[in-house]
Every structure is written in C-alpha cells, then in structure tokens.
Design a protein that fits this description.
Protein name: BRO1-domain-containing protein
Order of helices and strands: EHHHEEHHHHHHHHHHHHHHHHHHHH
CATH topology of the domain at 8-169 and 336-362: Serine Threonine Protein Phosphatase 5, Tetratricopeptide repeat
Structural class: mainly alpha
Domain BRO1: 4-396
CATH architecture of the domain at 8-169 and 336-362: Alpha Horseshoe
InterPro entries: ALIX_V_dom, BRO1_dom, BRO1_sf
Largest sheet: 3 strands, antiparallel
Distance between the termini: 26 Å
Organism: Sporormia fimetaria CBS 119925
CATH class of the domain at 8-169 and 336-362: Mainly Alpha
Oligomer: single chain
Shape: elongated
Pfam families: ALIX_LYPXL_bnd, BRO1
Strand order of the largest sheet: 1-2-3
Length: 724
Amino acid sequence: MSSNILFLPFRRSQTVPLPEAIEQYISSKYDQHPDMFKTDMQTVEKLRARAIHAQEPHASNIIKLQVYAAQLVWLSGKFPIDLGVEFPWYPALGYNTNHPVSRNNIRFELANVLFNLAAMYSQLAMSANRSTPDGLRVAANYFCLAAGTLWHLRDTVAPDMRTSPPEDMDSITLECLEKLMLAQGQECFWQKAVKDGLKDATIAKLAARVSDLYNEASEAGIRSEAISSEWIHHMAAKHHHFAGAAQFRAACDCLEKRKYGEEVARLRDSIACVNEGLKEQRYINQFVLNDLNALKNRVMEDLKRAEKDNDAIYFSAVPQKSELRILDRANMVVARIPKEVAESMTMLHENGEFGKPLFTKLVPYSVHLAASIYVDRRDRLVSSVVDELDTLTQNLHDVLRSLNLPGSLQALEKPMGLPPGLLAHAEEIRQQDGLQRLWHSMEDTKKLKTSDMVIYNEACEILRTEAAEDEAARRKHGTARWTRPSAQEAAPRLYAQIEEIGGYFKSAEESDKTVKKKLKENEFHIGLLSGPDRELENYVPSGRRPEITGVVEREAGKLRGCFNEVSRQESRRRRKIEALRAKAKQDNINPELLREAGRLERECPTQSIEAAQFEGLFDKRLKLYDADLDMVKEETKEQQAAIKQLQNANASFVTARRGDQTTKQREQALQNLENAYFKYKEIISNIDVGRKFYNDLAKIVSRFRDEARSFAYQRKSEASQLEE
C-alpha cells in the first residue's frame, strides 16, 4: 500500500473451451445444429478474452467487462447454469490467491466479471488526480460505482449462483468492500470541502460520516475470512482519524460561535480519537500514519491555545464528553449500480451500445425446460387415463374368468375342434414369438436393471470414499483447522438421493418378482398357445354333441349377445386408447411456447424467462384432454351396465344347463387358454412398463453419479487448499 486509500485487486482467469462446451450442449440438448451459431460462439470467446485481460485501470477497459457481463446475463436465459465448462478464477483477496477456484457455473463467471468491474472502478478512482476538485469528483464517482457494482453482486448475482461463493466473494466480504468504497468516496467529498474552504460545521458533518463508514467496513472485515489484518487495521485507523477530524472541525465551529468550553471538550475528544488511531501504527502504512500525526500536531496546538485562553480569559465550563451533542452527519455517497449493469439487457440489441445479443435464434433453455415439463404432465395425464381404462379391461376379464366365459359358450357351440377365436389368439401369440419373447424381454429388462445398479453403486462408492477421506483428514488436522462441514451437511440433497434411488430399486424388485411369478403360473398355457395347433387340439378334449333344448338355445343366444357386446366395448376401448396416444404424440406445444416466450421477452427484456411463467399456457393446453377424462367416466358406466346384463344372462344360461356335464372338461380347457391369452397381453404390458422404468432410472442414476463426481472433485480441491 503506497497510498492512504485502498483499491480492489483484479481476479485472474485462464482460457477455457467455452465455444466447445456451447457446441456440445447445443448438439446434445437442442434440435438446432450448432453450426448455425458458429459466429456467436467465436464472438463470446473473443468477449471473454477481452474481459479477462482487462487488468489495467483504464476507462476503455470498463466496456469490455460490461459487454461480457451483459452477454452472460442474456446467456443465462438461453442455457442452464451448469453449461459444461469449468471457469477457473484466482481469488483477489485472502490467503489462497495462488490457487484458482473453478465452477461449472455461468453465474459464477458473471460474479467474477462484476467483481473485476468493481475493481476497475476502484483502481480508476485510485489513479484519479485527487489534488484537484475535478479529480476528487471523478474519484468519488468511481468509488460509488464500485460500491454499487459490489452491492448488485451481493444482492442479485451471488444469491442466484446456486453454489457456495469463494471466500473473498461471500456476503460479509462483499459488504465490507462495499462500505470501504463508500467510505473512500465520502472521504473524497470531505477532502474537496476542505480544499474549497467550506464551513467547519459542514466539514465536521462530512468527516463524521466518513468515520461511520470506515467503522462499518472494519466491523464487516473482522467477520470475513478473506479481508487481511492489514486492511482491517487500516480501516480502524481511518475510522479513528476521521472521528478525530470531525471533532476538530466541530471545535473550530465552537470557537467561531464563542462556545469556548465546548471547544476545549471537543479538542480533547479529538486527541483521544487520534490516539486510538495511533494504536494501529505498527500495522498501517506511512501515509495513514503521517495523516494521523499531522492531525494530532494541529489539534495539540489548538488545544494548548484553547485551554490557556479559557483558563485566563473566558472561564467557560468544560462539559464532559457524555454531555456533548452528537455530531450531525452529511452523507454524500450512495452505492450506485451502473446503468450498464442494472439495465444491461436494454443495451443489447442490433444498434445498441453493447451490440446485438448472442444466440438469439436459439430457443431459450427455459422454453425447452417448459416443453419437457408440459410433456411430462401430459404424459402423466394420458397414462392415468390409459391406466384407468386398462383397469376397466382387467376388471372385465376377471368377471369373464369368474363366469367361465367364453369357454362355456365355445364348448357348447363347437364341441369338436378349436373355436375360431382361440385360433386367432394363438396365431397372434405365435407371430410375436410368444413365450420366447417374454423370457427374452425379461432378460433384457434384467440387464437394464443391472446396468442401473452398477452406476448407482459407483456413485454411492464415490460418496463413501469422499466421506471417509474427509473424516480421516478431520481426525488428522483437528476441527480447529478442518473447519468445513461434513459431506452430508455440505450436500444434503445429494445424500438424500441415496435412500430415494435405493427405494426405487426396492419397489422395482417387488414388481419384477410379481411379473416373474405371473409368467411362471401361466407359462404352460402360454406355451400351448405359442405352439402348433396340433398341441392345442391334444389339450382341448372333444366332447360329444350335447342335446340342446329350446330353452338352452335361447339362453345361449342371449348370453352370446351380451358377451359380444362387452367384447365390442373392449375393442372400442382399445381404439380409444390408440387414438388418445396418437393425439398426445401429435400434441406439439413448442409453437405456442415460442410465441409466449417472445411476448415475455418483449414485455420484460431484463427479466430471465422461467418455466413457471408458462403455467397458464399448460393449464389451457391440458384442457384438450378434458373430453378424455370424461370418456373414462362414460366407459365405467357403460361397462357396469354391460357386466350386469352379462351376469344375468349367464345365470339364466347356467340354470338352463343345470345337470348337463357333457362339455365340462372341454369348457375348462378352453377357458384356461382364453385366460392365458389375456395374461400374456398383461405380462407384455408389465414388461414394457418395467423397461421404460429402468430406462428412465438410467438417466436419474447417471445424473446422480455425475453430481457425485463433481461434488467429490470440488471437495478434493477444497481439501487441498485447507491442507496448504
């Protein structure tokens, strides 16, 4: 420090493969080809290079930082915060300035650029000619802009970083730096008032406010891990210096107003304040020490004169310090956020000061996120409708099974050979490779599960290893040095996923066992349906033609009519399900999302578009499926009526055939095969659900593993810094 004021040093960075990360992300997540944005990728690389190399206090460097910061704000609406590139930045303050902190985080990059913008303002203030009134005005303005940039960083950017900030950018450190910039800006106004020869009362008010701000900065600095003891002593000395200067000027005002006793009291208090400041003399630089000594010498001279005059001439009572009126304050500074930072989005357009925004033709990430949210809700709604319709069909099959239908009718109507319906079912199963398909599908599902489990166990092992290493280091170094939280405390959400995903596997295991048991129970009859007709004919016994009375024929006709009706209902239901799925497949919300996003961007250009802003559109769009929800109620009502008629007709049919055992065995064999066909369809559906579940789970466990790796890497970097 070769001055009586302080400036913020710049944070340093290195070149990163930002264009490559953007290209990779667009390729993997967007429908647009990255070559469309080659020029934008080159531009953002140039902007970053200019910004990180803006390390000299020159006014021309301000816009380099502002333009890149504005583009980063804009890009936050186009890309996720974790774009896929680690941004390394060396701390500017603290005790680890030689070790970079890296984050895969666009907001972290923005925070560092804004910190450097504040540093640029502070260094421009430092380099201003503070020996002239104009130079003091310029310096004060730069200090206020530095404070405003730090306030914006602390209040707006850092809370949205979604990761712990470096220690020299935590909230208390930024507060300390903001107050320091304001104190130094206020000091410029005080110095100008002295040079301009303003009234002592006015100068006293200005000095008192300078003292307050240095005190606030010092108190915040004490609570920061990054503010050095040298800076804290500097701010404490300046606090006492300006407290003394304020009392000195107040004493001069008292002399002018012939308040001789109060003059002596305030001069004595001024000396006391200066002496408090001089207690820091071992730790402060010569410039600050010279200022304190100069003030002390001047006050001492005035105090000797004032005490002598009062004792010999005026005989005014000298009040105690506690009786002195507290000095008024005249605040001349405010943390002023630069317009180029607060309203940066308004300056990004074709003819704007910052040029046009980049990647304008790229659909915003929030729109992609909103589209995926809508698709998820729509698919869940469609799945719930399909599940309810499938449940109705399953209930119908249970009723048919309990009534031994259509086996009892088939045995009566065709006592010899195989019924056409059964032959059609057998052919369908053969075309699908029947039993072999089921076992192969179950084996494929098992492989998917094993793969998911391997990834999950790998992630768990990464976390266990990291936790063990952390605990070993804590035992080795002690909690006084190893101050960081444990792994579970540092990443509670990540550790919660261990139990959450483990629960998914347990639930799936039970479902897999149920499906496997279902297949085992029906394997024989499904195998018959998969085989040649000859095996079916051998299994289904032929009966002698029964004697069919007029009553039996009439009741069989009624029952056949009722059975055909529920079969038609089931067929219509299948077609409705297919139509619903086709409707969902063709449901493309993207055009409406883009129109809504365009409207939001026009109305609020400075506000990032969030997926939550499309909730109204989602609700409106999902009303397209209200008719399908009503259809479920209609299907339920129609099936209940049809089943009631079927049960009544079957009761009459059974009564008419009471005592006739001629087709009993054939009837049971036919029903067994009919039941097996529906079980086959049910198992196919279960396996498809299981395959989809494990494919979806693969994404979850892969993301879990990636987060575990990133967390372990970050913790290892932290540990290296703690051990040095």
